[in-house]
């Protein structure tokens, strides 16, 4: 019983101090607290706004000659582009093909070249990079020039391109 009385007395004393404090200088303390809270809310809104204006960036790796994987990669690209478009945010997307995955970007063997052409027309922030090393090795192995689709740009090394984009903060996806 004494403990309850002590707690009650403490609450009464603290309450009295707060009341006295508000009557003398508490208005300043309360306003300071309100200003701090308002500042925190403004900072939170500014941070959220900054996140929304910074473009998202995604690099997608394709390294297998499998039409199902190629289509899955393009489905992922399409879904990401659509999502950020719907919420009014920017996104940059790059598909990097190397090794057997270069067939995705070959004009003579790509099972998805029509789809890539269509997507490139509707998703301007989408780019395709073809590994120059792989292209060179395929040219030697097949004893012919390897034609690429017009949407593909050649990069020296697909693996290095992936590394550099990730080092710059790009998100990585391998379907």
What keywords describe this structure?
175 residues, alpha/beta, 59% helix
Could you describe the 3D structure shown?
This protein has five helices and five strands. The protein has helices spanning 2-53, 67-86, 113-122, 132-142, 158-167; strands at residues 56-62, 91-97, 126-131, 152-155, 171-173. A five-stranded parallel beta sheet has the order 4-3-2-1-5, sandwiched between helices. The longest helix has 52 residues, at 2-53. The relative contact order is 0.14.
Order of helices and strands: HEHEHEHEHE
Which shape, going by the Cα principal axes?
Answer: globular
Rg on CA atoms, Å? 29 Å
**How many beta-strand elements?**
5
Whole-number average pLDDT? 83
The secondary-structure class comes to alpha/beta
Q: Helix segment count?
A: 5
In terms of topology, how is this protein built?
Layout: H1 2-53, E1 56-62, H2 67-86, E2 91-97, H3 113-122, E3 126-131, H4 132-142, E4 152-155, H5 158-167, E5 171-173
Parallel strand pairs: 1-2, 1-5, 2-3, 3-4
Summarize the structure.
The protein has 175 residues and is α/β, with parallel strands linked by helices.
